[in-house]
Amino acid sequence: MKYISLRETSGLSRLSPSIEDGDTTITTAAAVRRLRLSSESSQSLLPLSALDTSTAVSQPATPPPFNCDSKEEISNMTSDSEDKMSEDCMDSPSVEEASSIGKLGGGGLLKKGPWTSAEDAILVDYVNRHGEGNWNAVQKHSGLSRCGKSCRLRWANHLRPDLRKGAFTPKEERQIIELHAKMGNKWARMAAEMPGRTDNEIKNYWNTRIKRRHRAGLPIYPPDISQALHENQQCQNVALPDIPASGLLAQGLGSSHSDSLMFSMLHPPKRFRESRESECLIPCVNSSTADYFPAFDQYPDDGCEKITQLSSSILPGSHALLNGNFSSSEPMPWAMNPELPSLQYSDAQVGSWGTGTPSSPLPSLDSVSTLIQSPLTEQAQSDSLSRRNSGLLEAVLYESHTLKSSKNSSCDLTSNVSVVAGDAMDSLSQNLRETQWEIHSDPISPLGHSTSSVFSECTPISGSSFDEPHSVEIFPECLAKQEAVDWVTTKCDVNEENANQMMFLRPDFLLASNWFGHSTERGREHSVLNDTRGTLLGEDFNGDCKQISTMSVSDSSCQKRGCGSCSWDDMSTACELSENL
DNA sequence: AACTCCGCCAACCGCGGCCTC
DNA sequence: AGAGGCCGCGGTTGGCGGAGT
Predict the structure, then answer these.
(1) Closest residue to B17 measured CA to C1′
(2) Does the keyword Repeat apply (predicted)?
(3) pTM for this structure?
(4) For residues A567 and A515, is the Cβ–Cβ distance under 8 A?
(5) Which of A60, A165, A324, A564 is within CB 3.0–4.6 Å of A514 for a Cys-Cys bond?
(6) pLDDT in tens, A28-73
């Protein structure tokens, strides 16, 4: 027989785990009644077997006297809710707090802090009589000195009869991971997928899990999920190249501004009352995820921590993790790679794009959102893990590869350079595919030294969001980069129809063009360009860029188009040129 | 036993969307 | 159209309790 200790004085919430212990699941509302029953018997220990969960929902119109966690409270209980509140507050541990905020109830200042069982009972009673919603009326009509928000939160997180309290089961943990992989930090959506669980629970679980794993230097997601989503990405996001240049630019260079633009455009609305439109954002994940993560069971909870010890420094590029602050609005390290298009391109994508999938429809916003939120992983991680395997290089190579295919003969990109680049890309991709996580520990790029340092000055590129304040704090250059990007994006009126024309705005395209290469030739005029380039891509970029530029300039379809002489401070010219393409 | 550190989690806060007037 | 209220979501905070020293 299990007993619930009633020594707790800070509300019911901390009783819940005890109640939940074992397979028994009862609601907190039921616990209210339990406590009431226990108070009547004046027992300090309540036998669980005596609990009756069936009565949790039906509350009497006038709550009978009930226990407020202490015998003193019991003796002070009256049938009047406000009196109960007063007594409860006087006896509750939050009395100091309550007194510190002034008069309680009756239109006075609203109480804050932990809920007492008396308040819980009042709220439960009110909801049972009037139903959910109209939370501001609770305070008016029930005597509770709590704001509507607080009432709603308390009800939703603790008093709802259909809540499942207690620790997450391994199955639920797996589900959370999968859902997070699919949705990012959409806790409410995740909670909707997990009946009986609240967004707060899930959020807390995730945050603590992230912290734990971060401390352990382990990846957030088990390799299986990474692999599954990676594969998923292959069959989902084949049309990214068709995304307007503005989007890619925003993606590629990221920033608080362009990022927000992108997210406002690409992320589904916060609310999705109408439907679960995103049910199939990642069909493979969504549908019977266990099928897609067959090996995940071997990583219950922290089981996967046993794996990938090889990645001693996980996601060094993730500023969130680096900071020990897991903040949210960014997708998780790999659920958030809107920053660089290159990081979004899986090897398979590159392959599929390279081989051309012209019929591929433009992804829906949701799918794009999914792409941004969930994908990338090995590559992004390897990118971030590997100083030698910058995503930028892949972007350049990819772009070269893509241009070769998409432009066909019109743009003769089938030069040796392109072939070499494509081969290198294939090689790199193959390497990535084969080595998977191992690459993290020893990511020897087939391209040897590369643009490794390109992004070293701006870590967010390797898998984090730009919209975090601390990212700016740590990487002040990002601000300047953002400004440059903003400037570019605002200077040129980009629309989807001109996406191809505006391709030159894509950073990878820029890299492949001779814009940068010519910068030195034009002397001081292009100091701005140099600065911008350095700002955008990091100081170390220059050296690496020369190589890239040299590579690309040789075939330089861009050069033929005459856009090689554009400078960042003359974007109107660039726009004009784009129109003439 | 006393103290500190850390994890967990309930609750608060700010923001933004929706709805009504 | 827009102002205000309501509601929900996501991020953050602070308290509690357990573990470690």
Answers:
(1) A271
(2) yes
(3) 0.42
(4) yes
(5) A564
(6) 333 333 333 333 333 333 333 333 333 333 333 333 333 333 333 3
